[in-house]
Amino acid sequence: MGFSRRLWLGAAPAAAAGAAALLRPAAAEAQVAAGSTIDTVVKRGTLQVGVSLGTPPFGITNASMEPDGYDVNIAKLLAQQLGVKLAVVDIVAANRIPSLTTGKVDLVISSFSITAERAKAIAYSNAVYVDQQVAIGPKATAMPTIASLAGKRIGVTRSTTNDIALTKQAPPGTEIQRYDDDASTNQALLAGQVQGIVTSGALAAAIASRSPALALETKFVVSEAPMAAGLRRDDLEWLHWVNTTLFILWTNKQIQPLQQQWMGVVNSELPRFG
Amino acid sequence: MFQTYGVVQAEYLVEAMRWTASLAAIAMLGGAIGGALMVVLRLSDAMIPRAIGGAVTYVAQGTPLLVQLFLAYFGASAIGLDVPPLAAAAVAFTLWASAFLGDIWCGAIETVPKGQREAGLALGLRPRQLFWRVVLPQAVRPAIPPTVGFLVQVVKNTAIASIIGFRELTRAGQIVANVTFQPMPVFLTVAVLYFALCYPLSLAARLLERRLGSARIGPITV
User: Fold this and answer.
1) Are B27 and B158 in contact (CB under 8 A)?
2) What are the residues of chain A with a beta carbon less than 8 Å away from any beta carbon of chain B?
3) In chain A, what residues touch B11 (CB-CB under 8 Å)?
4) What is the pTM for the complete model shown?
């Protein structure tokens, strides 16, 4: 009994370690052989960037049905600086981290807010935009503060910063309805299935202007969050290149016009880690 | 930035329908081959093939298709294979369809009354002749309705592949709806396009059933 138990206790961590090794992204190992992602990208001649194309104004498809939006244009600038082609990979919000850790993309630029929880799994570049999370709803619905959400049904996109902020701050009795992407969240609001949604400030203005019949308005700011590009954690050279290039693009005033075009506001400064 | 739903957007949806149709066709073809293999395994006299067939069926039916898709897409990456979304979806859907079609066809073969087999044996038919000339013709007809029902499910379930970034009809619908803020016309179009894919399937099945019915092959009910 004692022996078999010891055997079991010994085997369990070994099995767990084996499983962990199996599940560890192979991309990381592949990189050791091929060097940093920056070398892989240059050799490949294509920069693969994960963007959710269902998240206006960050990722959308334009009138000719090509990928467009703020994040896509930031990705274009990065690819230009590197002298490679850009391949936009459409991903849903919940797959941003798996797409990175499994090596499906080189970079995720997809309204990706910096959170301490996510920073355990991936690395963040310096900020590309500082956004607000706001609650919006029809004018007729009284919803002046976060406390007034109690007893109301509020929509939010699953595993986004909006979701994290709402889940943390909502008073007991708030019925949080989670959807898989912003398209569904917006539709729930437009269809009246939820009384309000928590979404990015940039998107809120656009939704309100597009649906005058509902008379939507911004109710209150839930939180404020800088957004950045996401990278694999173990790739410091790549991280350094992305940060350097973002710094150059900002000081050369190439990012500011994009903010003006897509967000309607320009950040006074982009916070940097140092 | 925002657009009005029009011809360009509708064309985009039709384009995406082609991907839905492609994935469904791959799943049906792969599922038919895999399903036949499942039947061979599960009706085998030997224990090991039977156990393998049973295990594959239980695993594929007992786990959500969504999880199978995640494993095929992200799991393949974890063991060092870079699979594009279409390949991952094709593998997951083929496995899934194989298990279900195999199950349907095994069930259909089992509906053929035991007496039919015994009569064939009494007439001196070999096992192979017995299967191809007596059992299979009688199993085809009861197999058609559930098979077609399942194929329609295959078409509609391709929507799940959107979660791994496969740009099929549902994902395209979400993208267009989000940029036009007109969910109603967009998803009505999506529904019509799905219907255009599924209805001919049902229609073909009804024709096939009627033709096989007139040939008077079917299980004898007492």
Assistant:
1) yes
2) 22-27, 29-30, 53-57, 60-65, 69, 89-92, 95, 98-99, 102-104, 180-184, 186-187, 190-191, 206-207, 210-211, 262
3) 65
4) 0.76
CATH number at residue A89: 3.40.190.10
Q: Is A55 helix (H, G, I), strand (E, B) or coil?
A: strand
- What is the distance in angstroms between the Cα of B51 and the nearest Cα belonging to chain A? 26
Q: What is the pLDDT of residues B33-92, one digit of tens each?
A: 999 999 999 998 899 999 999 999 999 999 999 999 999 998 888 888 888 889 999 999
DSSP for residue A52 = -
On chain B, the residues whose CB falls within 8 A of the CB of A105 are none
- Residue A40 and residue A42: Cα distance in Å, rounded? 6
- Report which secondary-structure segment, H or E, holds A86: strand A85-90
Burial string for B61-83 (b: 16+ CB within 10 Å, else e) reads eeeebeebbbebbbbbbbeeeeb
Q: In whole angstroms, give the CA distance from residue A90 to residue A100.
A: 13
pLDDT level of residue A13 (50, 70, 90 thresholds): very low
Using alpha carbons only, how large is chain B's radius of gyration in Å? 21
Q: Are residues A197 and A258 in the same domain?
A: no
> Considering only CA atoms, which of B13, B15, B23 is closest in space to residue B187?
B13
Q: Are residues A221 and A239 in the same domain?
A: no
Look at chain B and report how many structural domains it folds into. Answer: 1
pLDDT above 60 for B163? yes
Residues B185-196: tens digit of each pLDDT: 999 999 999 999
On whether the CB atoms of residues B169 and B194 are closer than 8 A, the answer is yes
Judging contacts by C-beta atoms under 8 Å, the chain A residues touching residue B165 are 89-92, 95, 99
Question: Is residue B95 included in any domain, yes or no?
Answer: yes
* pLDDT tens readout for residues A23-48: 444 444 444 445 789 999 999 999 99
